[in-house]
Amino acid sequence: MSVYSVILAGGSGTRFWPLSRAARPKQFLPLASRWPLLVETARRIAPLSTARQTFVSCGAAHASAVRRSLKAIPARNILIEPVARNTAAAIGLAATQVALREPRAVLQVLPADHAVRDDERFRACLREAAHAAEHGSLVTLGIRPTRPETGYGYIQLGDPIDGGAFRVKSFVEKPDEATARSYLQSGQFLWNAGIFVFRADAILGAIAAHLPKLAEALARISPTIGTRGYRAAVGRELKKLPSISIDYGVMEKVDNLAVVRGDFGWSDLGSFASMPEVRRADERGNVVSGEVGAMVDCENCVIFAGKRPLALAGLSEMVVVDTGDVVLVVPKRDSQKVRQLVQAFEVRGLKRYL
Amino acid sequence: MSVYSVILAGGSGTRFWPLSRAARPKQFLPLASRWPLLVETARRIAPLSTARQTFVSCGAAHASAVRRSLKAIPARNILIEPVARNTAAAIGLAATQVALREPRAVLQVLPADHAVRDDERFRACLREAAHAAEHGSLVTLGIRPTRPETGYGYIQLGDPIDGGAFRVKSFVEKPDEATARSYLQSGQFLWNAGIFVFRADAILGAIAAHLPKLAEALARISPTIGTRGYRAAVGRELKKLPSISIDYGVMEKVDNLAVVRGDFGWSDLGSFASMPEVRRADERGNVVSGEVGAMVDCENCVIFAGKRPLALAGLSEMVVVDTGDVVLVVPKRDSQKVRQLVQAFEVRGLKRYL
User: Fold this and answer.
1) Chain B positions in Cβ-Cβ contact with residue A293 (cut-off 8 Å)
2) CB B98 within 8 A of CB B202
3) Measured between CB atoms, does A100 come within 8 Å of chain B?
4) Which are the contacts of A178, defined by CB distance < 8 A and separation ≥ 6?
5) CA B171 to CA A283: how far, in whole Å?
């Protein structure tokens, strides 16, 4: 069985600003280790897909950064999207590439900006998913929840099929806290991590059924692959498409969906507040990157120090980030307000810091 | 009546670090206006004492900074202390200088690092004190308390004497909060601001009675004033003296003490938390100096921005100071922990930031 991978590196979020910038979004940051998340992701799946079998999808602005980060990946495997059109289009393009080579090959889809603590268990889970996918199912990885998280979508387990996979009873939108708590207790709900495994022909078939416009665009792009006309064709076709996620556009609509349960220390690194999920905290719960000048009576903080010393005292549950040109201070629970700060910087003409 | 002034500029505290540094302590910072506190203090008393009648007491390390700040003051009026020996010695030295010129002249003693909102009322209060001092009393200014402050010493009012002055019933050490509250309600207790007015001969007499060693040292220094031997004599004599405050060494022991009540918007600027006493806060209670990049949902904070933009969200009662080389973040209520940060920097060999 051939297993291809596509790493989705098209993200441009601002939740890790000012660490992340327009030219260097989260997937290029070494948040969970000394390597960028993108590099960690590529390494993590290298035992499953060869470099030739690994695609990376990204925006035009980040193509050269991807190439520099992942030198082993052939240049033609970097799938550049001139306009961002969300995951359905990105996955469709990758599946079209794979289908030209091996229509029945398995394709695994991995966000470039997630962290995984136990790579072995992660790969074991992907292997299980690939087996389930071989027979035509669209397989999603469901993460065993560890807290009543209200920021994720959930997958409800259905009947078991073969080899540890299950049918999917339903996809559920982000729940309120009471509901999330009941999900956690029931054991029947898993986090939707946006990690998918399917045969190239299976996902293209599902796209044809549920996103016909995308299917038509892919059909027009397909003959140009490997030719000079490819880039122009992609640009022309993507521009006409709506921005739709694979979850909403396909996964929630098909009936041959399966889920494989995973428990491998996953984090989507949703904000600075999630740093303790991926970095060891000190005995007072502080996660510190870089050299702090002095910390006195601080607990459960997330600190990114730059070249200058930080002097921090009496802080609790606080995020402090010094990037040299900008200093961010925000309570962990208000991490989502970073977006408003970015907007305020934009409005005030401070775009060079974004 | 000749009125001399001595501005006590010997402070070297760290409570405004990293704004203040060893080479530039608080009195040199423009905390309450665009002028350094020292300059404001000198301006404030200029209508009462001529430049020739104004002395400034400071450490050797700050003498040239004082000269640069106060160009009108004659160089011989800058009283340099080679070693810091607290207020008793500083005031004794100034009184000795004044006594050589006019023994019965009135000397007013003013800390260099306080802020006053209403200069007119302040001067009116000093004039009242000078009148009371003319007859030989040692006069202290008592500030009408505006909150149950536990960080100050208090002066208990005694019987009225003449011209609005009162006898002092007692000096009280920093009270606990319940006591401070009862003081506030009683109307009989005033804050001891460390502002004193007395005749030069009167304070020298009191020093002779209660700090005989200091009196002897001053007697040995006096003949050297205006000669080449002066600096050496001061160094030699100060070194032998203990460090004693005028409050503890003299004021609390004499019986010819009087107090004049003052109500002129006084602040001793004890820490970053006291900034709202001297700077206008915005509608959300934030006192901001410099250009902040963006503030979202912040209230009652004290912010000193440097050249780089600060991005602050969701902060309440927080102090953020960016001096370019150091960034301080500390809750207002923990302002006193700045001292521990300074110690930590010292221990870690980061002295160049102190």
Assistant:
1) 326, 341, 344-345, 348, 350, 353
2) no
3) no
4) none
5) 46
pLDDT at A206 over 90: yes
Q: Does A91 score more than 90 pLDDT? A: yes
Residue type, B296: V
pLDDT per position as a tens digit, A274-321: 999 999 999 999 999 999 999 999 999 999 999 999 999 999 999 999
Q: Is A328 on the interface with B (CB under 8 A)?
A: yes
What token pair was written down for A300?
């459960």
Pairwise CA distance, residues A61 & A334, whole Å: 30
Phi, psi of B140 (to 5 degrees): -120, 145
Q: For residues B167 and B171, what is the distance between their CA atoms, to the nearest angstrom? A: 11
Residues 267-306 of B with CB under 8 A from A: 293-294, 296-297
How many whole angstroms separate alpha carbon B47 and alpha carbon B61? 29
Cβ atoms of B319 and B331 closer than 8 Å: yes
Structure tokens at A254: 């098909």
The pLDDT assigned to A348 comes to 95
Cβ of residue A337 closer than 8 Å to a chain B Cβ: yes
Given this model, what pLDDT does residue B162 score? Answer: 76
A contacts of B296 (beta carbons < 8 Å): 337, 340-341, 344
CA–CA separation, A276 and A177 (whole Å): 21
Report percent pLDDT > 90 for chain A: 95
Distance CA A6, CA B112 (A): 68
Q: What whole-number distance in Å separates Cα of residue A104 and Cα of residue A136?
A: 9
Question: Does any CB of chain A come closer than 8 Å to the CB of residue B311?
Answer: yes
CA distances from B104 to A209, B44, B202 (A): 104, 23, 8
Interface test with A, best of B16, B327, B336, B347 (most A CBs within 10 A): B327
First to last CA, chain A: 44
Q: What are A236's two structure tokens?
A: 């022309």
What residues does A316 pair with on adjacent strands?
A: A299
CB nearest to A293's CB, from B311, B333, B345: B345
Give per-residue pLDDT as tens, B16-34: 999 999 999 999 999 999 9
Look up residue B149 and give its two tokens: 């402050």
Which tokens is A194 given? Answer: 């946006």
ipTM: 0.90
